Amino acid sequence: MSFIESPFFARRRMLAAAALVGIGLPAARAASSSSTDAWQPVVLPQARQRDIASAITGQRYRIFVSVPETPPPAGGHPVLYALDGNASFPNLASMARTAARRSKATGQPAPIVVGIGYATDNDYDAAGRTRDYTPPSAAAPATEGGADRFLDFIERELKPLVAAMAPVDPNRQALYGHSYGGLCTLHALFTRPAMFQTYVAASPSIWYRDRIVLGGLEGFALRVKALSARPALLLTAGELEQPSASGAVAPGARAAILDQRQMAGEARNLAARLDGEGTLSRVQFMLFAGENHGSAALPAMARGLEFFMK
Q: How far apart are CA 224 and CA 233, in angstroms?
C-alpha cells in the first residue's frame, strides 16, 4: 500500500528538521529523517487495477476502476466504461472525483469509472484495439473485426466483476470510446442498444471499411423500440480533423487523409440523421474548435461525462 503525505504535514516535518539542525544536530542526520525530498511513485486516489484473461476473446486486459467515496444512491452508482483505458482512465477518474465533490450541490451521484485497457505500460495497444474495436467484416483480416467478441467480454465477464465490487445501477451505464473506440461505441449502440443507456462516440472512425458500421442502422429503430427506455448518444469531433469542417486546414500530407475520411462531417451527419429520425432519447454533436484527432479526446471526455450525468 502506498502513502502520500499531505503538503501540510510535509511542511511541518521539514520545519521540524530545520529546527533540529538549528540546535546542533548534523544537517545530514536531520535530512535523513524525512523522505519528502525524494521522488516517489505517483498514486492515483481511489483507483485500483488488475489484469484479467478473457475466456471469450482469449486476450488479457488491464482493468482500471475508481469507485466514489460517497455513499451509493439507492439504485447504485452509475458506471462509465471507457475504452483505451490505459490512456483515458486517469483523466476520467479525476473528472469523476471532481463530480463527486460537487454531487451534494448538483444532486447527481458520482459515477464509478471503469477503464478497459491492455496489459502494457503503453498508453495504447495498436494491435489490440484494432482487433477489438472494429466491427466484423467479410473483407477484414483475422487481426480485425473482433468487436462482437469484445462486447461479449464486457457484458458477460467484466460487468459482473464490477458489480461485485460496489453497488451499481444497471439502468445508468455509459460507454465512451475515441477513434476506433468511437467506432466500437457506435457498433455497440446500433447492434446492442440495451447494453448501455448512454453512448459517447468521440471522433468515431465511421470511414472504416466503407462505413460498414452504418450497416447496423438496419433494424436499429425496431431494436430501440423494444426497450423500456431509449438510449442517448453524444458524437464529437475536432475542428482540425477535417480540412473543410470549418475552414481550418490541417498541416502536411495528413490533410488529404483527413479530407478523405471526413471525420467531423460523418459524425455531424450521423447526429443529424438520428436526431431527425427520433429513435434516441437525446442526440448531440459537438465540434471542438482548434482540436485535432488526438487532442479532441480530452474535451470529449469532459463533455461526455457531463452528458452522461445529466
A: 13
- For residue 63, the surrounding DSSP H or E stretch is strand 60-66
Does the annotation mark 178 as catalytic? no
Q: Report the DSSP beta bridge partners of residue 64.
A: 49, 115
Task: For residue 212, give the DSSP letter.
Answer: G
Which of 54, 66, 88, 179 is flagged as catalytic?
179
How far lies 44's CA from each of 5, 25, 93, in Å?
A: 13, 37, 9
pLDDT digits (tens, 9 = 90+) for 56-93: 999 999 999 999 988 899 999 999 999 999 999 999 99
User: Distance (Å, rounded) from C-alpha 187 to C-alpha 233?
Assistant: 12
Partners of 66 in the beta sheet? 47, 113
* 293 has catalytic annotation: yes
**Which cell is 247 given?**
475552414
Q: What is d(CA 120, CA 104) in angstroms, rounded to the nearest whole number?
A: 37
